[in-house]
Amino acid sequence: MQSDQERPPLYTVWEEFCGWTFDRTAGIPKSQRFTFGQKLDEKTLAMLLHITRCIYADAGKIARLEEMNFLLEELRVLWRLVQKRGWISLQQLNFANLKIDEAGRMIGGWLRQQKQKALRPPTPAGGGGTP
Fold first, then answer.
1. By the 8 A CB rule, do 55 and 90 touch?
2. Diameter over CA atoms, the chain
3. 106-124 residues labelled b (16+ CB within 10 A) or e (exposed)
4. Apex CA 113: angle with CA 55 and CA 111, to 5°?
5. Where are the alpha helices (DSSP H) in the chain?
6. Class of CATH domain 9-118
7. What pLDDT digit, counting tens, does each position of 34-75 carry?
8. Against a cut of 0.90, is the pTM above it?
9. Which value, in Å, is the radius of gyration of the alpha carbons in the chain?
């Protein structure tokens, strides 16, 4: 893996959000930790793994980025439910939404770039124009 300075900003933002998430889900009551805490942890970690795969693999990148958008929506829903039950504060929910929105903007830009790249015709092997 690359050094912290070489990693894409999305990776860095999401890695930090993973730590924040794990700290919050540890405070969910044990009776609800499997239902809510484990789902939040799994989806947050799945996002980090998808990001890592997108950094290193070109195959399936568009589909993976679109899946990441769905994961972000699922995380928004789960965090709202956790806040409504009083397990995190409104300020913490706002922080989670801020980080999810930030990641969503980065993913959206990456997705647009990949779709444009897929539409471009391949360049000839010689790299030149017409003879």
1. no
2. 72
3. bbeebbeebeeeeeeeeee
4. 70
5. 9-25, 30-32, 38-56, 61-84, 90-119
6. mainly alpha
7. 999 999 999 999 999 999 999 998 889 999 999 999 999 999
8. no
9. 18
